[in-house]
Give the backbone structure.
Amino acid sequence: MDVRNFGKVAVLFGGNSAEREVSLNSGARVLAALQRQGVDAHPFDPAERSLDALAAFDRAFIALHGRHGEDGSIQGALELMGIPYTGSGVLASALGMDKWRSKLLWQAVGLPVPDYALLTADSDFSDIEEALGLPLFVKPACEGSSIGISMVTRAGELAAAHAEAARHDPVVIAERGILGGEYTVAILGDEALPIIKIEPATAFYDYEAKYLRDDTAYRCPCGLPEARERELRQQALMAFRTLGGRGWGRIDFLMDEAGRAYFLEANTSPGMTDHSLVPMAARVAGISYDELVLRVLALASLG
């Protein structure tokens, strides 16, 4: 791969979402990896520079997470400017950011998702607790990194969990707790990488477990039978493609005690920190961090 063909590359990170700190970490690592390999890569924080300045670049590596970076906004700007960028396009990015609409699409093609309900301030919280059962998880539809998520374990707690999630997004989902294990599948091009099983030491895989603690266990190989893992990797590819995903991403799913899988959410601009899951899966597949970022950059496109 001749890195000169990439031209001048903007590594987009930071931004103004609730995930800014994680994005700064991801972007700094991506930038360093590209520069180590001779790519003419430069930092670009949209919260500090006008997007007009992107006209000086030939390609963009998006390491933004959350709103305005992962939801189709920056993708639309890059489309208008004619600058090829990493990851999914406008529609797939918007759908991947929206947990509710992702579920609707996955249900439409027959992929299983956890039972859920949309919440408003006028919801009958006790009825929903009874219908979904406890525990359940309450989350903003359009946030990432477990921001605004609560685990409801006792009757009467749902209203407070809704209020917390609604601080971050007007669309709030209550979701039946599926407690047989949490897994993730990294997508790179047309390939689903080895599945990772996530075993947090906390009650669930929250922000602290993702980014701040060192006692979260990541199992890769994940321990599933080979045929079952192969099947789930193909289903994850289907889930990604159903949203229109391209380039790279990540699909998270849960498993119940009977071994049934339920697709949870998509990540179209995954983390690239030292705690992040795509680099872990790539490493097990024999792909170094530096090779991974080059391969992602090589997949940059428009349309």
Notes: The chain has a mean pLDDT of 94.
